[in-house]
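Worked example

This section walks through a single chain of length 424. The input is the sequence exactly as stored; nothing has been trimmed or padded.
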Amino acid sequence: MRRRIAGSSDIKDESLSPAGELRVQWASREMPVLQLIGKRFAKSKPLKGIRISACLHITTETANLALTLKAGGADLTLCASNPLSTQDDAAAYLVAEQGIPVFAIKGEDNKTYYKHINAALNHKPHITMDDGADLVASIHKERKELIGNIIGGTEETTTGVIRLRSLEQEKRLKYPIIAVNDAQTKHFFDNRYGTGQSSIDGITRATNILWAGKKVVICGYGWCGRGVALRAKGLGAHVIVCEVDPIRALEAVMDGYQAMPLLEAAKIGDIFITVTGGLHIIDSEHMLAMKDGAIVANSGHFNVEINIPALEKLSVDKKQIRGSVEQYTFADRKHIYLLGEGRLINLAAAEGHPASVMDMSFANQALCVEYMVKRGKELKPRVYPVPDEVDKEVGKLKLKAMGIAIDTLTPEQRKYLESWESGT
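Given that input, the structure is written out below as tokens.
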């Protein structure tokens, strides 16, 4: 094993690069929108001279985003946004073959994780790209000297947007950030179809369970929860949704699922999946109510949705029984199985979202970075939506890549829709 440890990178094993290259190329086949943007970037160089620090899941899909930004002239440095999400071969390829500095090792501890974030920030970015807002939080807490050089940033995920809006509400956000997560071509597709498929994939790989006939309890019915519910139902599971929002709970019922309080669901559930972005959704009282053999997994960004310290305290024994499965034994000999250390199960035990879904998410990222470079200095320190023209452009490019044509309004139809004068 040849670990690369230097001022420019810290990865597991540089010799993994050939395997990483093949997998990055495989992912690129399913990312035609990003390829189209990359070709335009290579000609126009809209990011020339721009330093970017990106805290993202270091996967084959992210590697394709990195190559697109590099084609646009960006000077890019990457670090991981989750200790378990790095694909070491993809990281090796970016470092060894593409010369892009990467600070990420799958399984790194918390100390190393934040050391890597700071290493990426040493790049003195003009643009930040974040997935969960740990990079931005580190800047605002510990690296305030960097703020003067920063034009703006982007944020990839629901949890990060929540954190950044909190920072904005406290009037402490120091530079503008685009909430890429909120683009229609992101949350409708990435969160629903991507999280739905990849979460089920991660749990299946970790456990090799049969979903048919299982009672699957989904905590949270946002776009991610909707996607997981849809896929679990498709595999024959009986889906129970637990929500605090009455409208979402009503929607779940109308979609054909059962809704109930989590404490009731805890007594009958076989598999529990948290997708809320909240804290201690599954807590001591729920674990005590669970039956022997319950499987618990998280698909929210941080590993706080399941109260793991409480699970440790309730247990008399703990052991690893499969690659991503820890068995916790209670005093009454009941077992609860925690998957992927309570971290993002789709990345901890599988490969994350399919490339074709990330194609749209990362196309939004690339175009929003371009927009921020052009317009960022005009913007106030706020969290901004993805510009409508960017969102629609991504949708158009995706349809074009899929060989799908759609209708357009005639001038007469457009005038009618924009007028108030015509009635019955």
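What to look for: The mean pLDDT is 95.
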